Write the structure tokens for this entry.
Amino acid sequence: MSDATIDTAIIGGTIATEEGLFPASVGIDDGRIVAVGDAETLPAARESIDARGKIVMPGVVDVHVHFREPGMTHKEDWGTGSAAAALGGVTTVFEMPNTDPPVDTIEHFEIKKAFAEASSHVDFGIYGLLGEHNLDQLPALAEAGVCGYKLFLGNTTGDLPCPSDGAVLEGFEILAELGLRCTIHAENSPILFWRQNKMIAAGRRDPYAHLAARTDVVAVEALNRSAIFAEWTGARIHIAHESCAASLPFIRFFKARGVDMTVETLPQYLYLNAESMLEPGGEVIRMNPPIRQKANQAPLWEGLSDGSIDMISTDHAPHARSEKYGDDIWKIACGFPGVQTSLPLMLDAVSKGRLSMPDCVRLMCGAAARAFGLYGVKGVIRPGADADIVMVDPDATLVLRSEDLASRGKVLPYEGWEVNGKPVLTMLRGKTVAKEGVMVGQAGFGRMVSPSMPAPLPRNTATTIKASLQHRQQPW
Ligand code: NCD
Ligand code: ZN
């Protein structure tokens, strides 16, 4: 074998980038992309994959999944969650810290990392928690390699206490110096509890009462507060699961002011609506923030096209089936699986002309990698990048079925939906990990990724808590 021989060539497909579609083959060696071009110009390869008739796109980067391990493995674990990701064309996941224990210390970070390294099929980032009790841990968590931080402003699965505004602002002062991004569950906790208690006192247990407790302003207020703190401190933020048309003018406002804020929405907000909660079994779509009235959908799609919303994530939030059904909405677990179905659902939007394929690549791959300091390694097909690749059959129909989910949470609000466009092969760092709906990779092949963020840009540094404690006289 000559030195010029490479490991793999993906021949004859159509490459999808954020700029457009073009016919090309991809050369892969040692886990990386080494060439993109005409098949004849590629070095000889030991293995050749026929991509004729297929779209070849970067592996999806999903910055919002809950894999539940440690502590809640009856809902999911790293093996099942990451297999679902691989089958869905997702090659990098960022996993949320609301596990048991939560990722609030180095020790807890290391526990989770060991589970992930032992059984993940895809590459992963691990979020650290920004909580009231662990502000002193934030720098050490950065050093250990967290992909970012998660701030729960609103109560959700795991019942982690929401930090006070004072703690959040100090947390942002610290994060601004570290430069890592903070993903925010932006709901106002006091308002939602106040309203929820009123609903409960009035005897309401119907699914709609959940939406009524977490009505639009609950999200709008928390988004604005987060953005004000981010602007003041220079902390980089990411608004998780944006569900609400009423948030969009505020997102545009703060982005125009130069706040380093990225925003995700989810397929469930684009495809499902609160009106369907009134049907039998409708309680299954209970999640936080809630799936809102149908009128929110068109503005969210618009936000995706005009760049107000940067990316699609999944908030893959599996629970046991028994936790998801019942006639008391307050007892229904919040969230449902999504990491295996997000790319098929968005490809369906492409096939229906609702989204362009380049926009799909931007929203599912490039934008997340850019926001979290992974772009160039992840999120793009070009020489030098990791060979994280999804081959898609744009003409194949896929029927979404809960029984096909690799997740332990076999709950699927899209049951029986026929979508156009199907991931047929997922490759992680040059190795095929899923093929034709079957896992072929090895548990534990996934590796931790850590971001390489631009230089921190802290603001108002003379008046941070740290600066104020150091200077007994006015420092300004
Ligand atoms: C998530 C979960 O179950 O961990 N649930 C949800 O309804 N979205 C938590 C979260 O992301 O808020
Ligand atoms: Zn959340």
